[in-house]
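In this section we walk through a basic example: taking a raw amino acid sequence and producing a predicted 3D structure, encoded as discrete structure tokens. The instruction is simple. Fold the sequence below.
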Amino acid sequence: MTLKELTVAYFQYPAIIAYLVSAAVCIGLYIWRPTSLVETLASILIAVLLYPLAWYCLHRWVLHSKWMWKSKLLASTWKRIHYDHHQDPNHLEVLFGGLHTTLPTIFLVTAPVGYLIGEFGGAAIATATGMIMTCVYEYFHCIQHLTYKPKNKWVAAIKQRHLAHHFHNENGNYGITNYFWDRAFGTYYEKVGERKKSKTVFNIGYTEDVAERYPHVANLSGGVASGHPRQRKGE
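The resulting token sequence is shown next.
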């Protein structure tokens, strides 16, 4: 796959279209009820700076949580938004998060801060920034999972970090493009040799033993898969 082919496919994906349309709506709302230039720039800057931390916290303590699978109400959501992605990292149908979870999350992370800075206009432009940041993250997320070999050294490096998260040890490298917070919280590793190979890298802790006690995800998934997706038999 070439970068051009990847980019064309990326912009045709419904989730990306939804983010871009949402960003356009928020920009329209900002134009309707704008705030001052200083408040506008501050709202954008805070949203850009806050986004990597919000993503890190959500990825580590929600998507990799050990509490969502315990609830029958939350089990299907956790399965869809992250368990399926780790079960088979190359399964493109679950590469992007579900809009019913991502859109409210983006709004809750960005809008309140923007409102505190510039009221309605600040909330609108901060939310638009969050939508655009999500598109940027998802673009690089595509590069990290699709069969494209980056020529840029930085892009190649972040792809290597992310694939290590999926194929070596899931308890680290939670960032997508930004690993500052991984470094700050001690979850960053550059080489796979720095950490032991995780036995739960493909089920993120939802093992057969766990499934016996909390069977909701297993019931939805037809059991608990283990090992590399390409090496599984009968799947």
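Looking at the output, two observations stand out. The chain has a mean pLDDT of 91. The radius of gyration is 19 Å. In the next section we compare this with other chains.
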